[in-house]
Amino acid sequence: MVNVIWPKVCRLELTQPLLVTLIQPIGALCPWIKTRWPEWFLPPTVIFKRPKPDWEEEYATEKQAYNLSKPLQGTVIPYFYGEAIYGESPALVFSAIAGVTLLDLACNEFPVIKEEVIEKGIDDAFKALTSYGVEH
User: Fold this and answer.
1) CATH number of the domain at 2-98, please?
2) C-beta contacts of 32-37 below 8 A and 24+ residues apart
3) What is the mean pLDDT of residues 84-103?
4) Nearest residue to 22 (alpha-carbon basis) of 43, 40, 42, 44
5) 5: helix, coil or strand?
6) What is the spatial distance between Cα 20 and Cα 34, in angstroms, rounded to a whole number?
7) Which band of pLDDT confidence, cut at 50, 70 and 90, is reported for residue 101?
8) What is the secondary structure of 104-133 as a DSSP string?
9) pTM of the predicted model, to two decimals?
10) Average pLDDT of the chain to the nearest whole number
11) How far apart are CA 29 and CA 128, in angstroms?
């Protein structure tokens, strides 16, 4: 199932064949299998992000930034799994992030979170990013 988040960003629910499901535990024991066939070890939901028209340089820069900030993946930023072809164009493949978005909070769809908690989380994320030379 594909859920379009923004025109160039899609959430993709993956269905894996039984054989792949059976092989996944072996990947933990034999890392070369995971290196050879990384698509077998993707999580059930991934995010595809395609480049905007005429934004090839920004797309390449984003890919490079994710490669340079690997230690932050999974904590401050999503895991970057690499690149794939989606809808006849290249797409960056990321882990999906679970939780409540700032937009959800702004729309009062979820319980209120204290502003200080949100501010601290954002500040911690920016500090981690800048420690790797990332500038927004």
Assistant:
1) 3.30.200
2) none
3) 83
4) 40
5) strand
6) 11
7) confident
8) HHHTT-S----HHHHHHHHHHHHHHHHHTT
9) 0.74
10) 82
11) 31
Structure tokens at 127: 């500090």
What average pLDDT does this structure show over 27-31?
77
DSSP structure string for 36-61: H-GGGG--SEEEEEPPPTT-HHHHHH
Domain ranges for the chain, please list them.
2-98, 99-136
**According to the model, what pLDDT value does residue 95 have?**
92
Q: What is the mean pLDDT of residues 63-78?
A: 88
What is d(CA 39, CA 45) in angstroms, rounded to the nearest whole number?
Answer: 12
Angle at 50 between CA 5 and CA 90, to 5 degrees: 145
